[in-house]
Amino acid sequence: MASERPLTKDMKADGEVLLLREYERVGGYRAIREALGMEPKEITDLVAKSGLRGRGGAGFPTGSKWSFVPLGKDAPHPKYLVANADEMEPGTFKDRWLMEGNPHQLLEGMMIASRAIEADVAYIFLRSEYVLSAQRMQHAIAEAYAAGYLGKKIFGSEVSLELFLHLSAGRYMCGEETGLLNALEGKRANPRTKPPYPQISGLFGKPTIVQNVETLSNLPHIVNHGFEWFKKLSRTADAGTKLYGASGKVKRPGLWELPMGTTVGELLEDHAGGMRDGVKFRGLLPGGASTDFLTEQHLDVKMDFTEVQKVGSRMGTGTMIILDDQTCPVGMVWNLEDFFAQESCGWCTPCWSGLRWAERILFAFEQGLGSEADLEKLAWITKLCAPGNTFCALAPGAVEPLQSALKYFRDDFLRHVHEKRCPWR
Amino acid sequence: MLSAEERREIEAELPHYPDKQAACIDAMKIVQRYRGWLSDESIREIAEFLGMSPDDLDSVATFYNLIYRKPVGRHVILLCNSVSCWIMGYDRLRERLCQRLGIQLGETTADRRFTLLPIVCLGTCDHAPALLLDNDLHRDLSPNSVEQILESYR
């Protein structure tokens, strides 16, 4: 039986965008009308019961996140809802698909989330390199305003919602929740100390929810079909479908909406078509640059937040980056750490200093100048950057591929030491 | 002085935020679209318009890699150097681009036609390697495709 694909089934095969009237023809904007008749807390309870977890990578339960926002007439206003469309995690390209293919689905999801937290203003925080996403989201927003779906008294209700597209000016740090809030306030995207959490004091000091594009796009379907339906979409305890992807030297790199809990091996073989002729599989990062490597022994692991964590990695964004035997694992990790060192905002020392140090050591290995003692230094840096030692998750994420490479590819590091060169060059 | 168009476009962004300074990134991008890059003079003009000190605005400007504080060419090439593109042949692509343009990353050609900059993951990893040239995404690139692409940008 073909599995359900609520997020992508209505998208056009030719890659063209779904316009407002086309979105309505397939049932669009029904869920928000229903949500406007519900109490905000009812919506949050529904989302909590659905088991929806944040698709930006962290997997935090969405309903639980919203439950901390103060509601009612004594709550501070304006409150804000922000769609995190700053898709900049290396190897991740899933939110682009949702914004280019079905922008109204995201808008409707934002409207539902805004209703649940009684938000007055919503922003889409979009990286400006996503040129087509920006054009299509902007057009969809204009269509929605013209139809009376945004602005004052949306859908003829007593509820008002302003929604703006903010085009960012670069930097990976903007994808971090509190860094994003600073960027949206026109500041440097340094992270903020928590607490206070954004639900209490977020954008401009007001209650704010920041949510990933894929998470928000799920909301209309949960309202339309109920929480039990949403749970049944998944093969595991983590509910829903997931946008999975693969890049690297596989036969068919791409994106697929599949039941949550589809295994690593199925993604690699059945969907990505296996490795290209002449190259062999060595390992993969399951969900973007800031996740630990998985290897051959993990092909049966179900890709969801819970199961991947059990084997010492994270599902992250669910878009896998494949390492093959013709590619140097040390070089790959060097590329990753160079990225993280460059993108560190410079706010805390383990991150700006530790990551550049790791990058310099890895570069030395690539030049044939690494030693066995350097492996100990690298291992020490991964501990230096561990959770709790830094303001935000950038550094802990940055050392995930490094710590797992030291575990799974130690022999490859040692070959660089003994041969005094990179054996792949 | 900010032009009438620049002022009008910045003013259109102001109602999106509760304070003027929040619009400073939008404002810098608007002015950069007209002028190509932001000189010290441009920073002063925007800061004055938004009621900020030039130093405050510059601290924001220098954080963001898509705000250019040095002159760039007529066309800006943003070449993805992140992991999927690296696996799929970034190094050879960069070498060919540098050789063909006669410049290194971060530089501008003598005729001011192209600036070549590295960029983090462009989010098109199933079609790696990729680059963004002005507003056009070029994907599934090989070193041999470089020549033809550059030809179409005068």
Observed structural traits:
heterodimer, A: 425 residues, alpha/beta, Rossmann fold, Ubiquitin-like (UB roll), de novo design (two linked rop proteins), 3 domains, 4-stranded parallel beta sheet, 4-stranded mixed beta sheet, 17 helices, 8 strands, B: 154 residues, alpha+beta, Arc Repressor Mutant, subunit A, Glutaredoxin, 2 domains, 4 strands, 42% helix, elongated
Describe the secondary-structure layout.
The complex is a heterodimer of chains A (425) and B (154).
Chain A: H1 20-25, H2 30-36, H3 40-50, H4 62-66, E1 80-85, H5 94-101, H6 103-117, E2 121-126, H7 131-146, E3 162-167, H8 177-184, E4 208-212, H9 213-225, H10 227-232, E5 241-247, E6 254-259, H11 264-271, E7 281-285, H12 305-310, E8 319-324, H13 329-343, H14 349-366, H15 372-384, H16 394-408, H17 410-419
Parallel strand pairs in A: 1-2, 1-4, 2-3, 5-8
Antiparallel strand pairs in A: 5-6, 7-8
Helix pairs in contact in A: 2-6, 2-9, 3-6, 5-6, 6-9, 13-14, 13-16, 14-15, 15-16
Chain B: H1 4-13, H2 24-35, H3 40-50, H4 54-61, E1 75-80, H5 83-87, H6 90-101, E2 114-119, E3 131-133, E4 136-138, H7 146-151
Parallel strand pairs in B: 1-2
Antiparallel strand pairs in B: 1-3, 3-4
Helix pairs in contact in B: 1-2, 2-3, 3-4
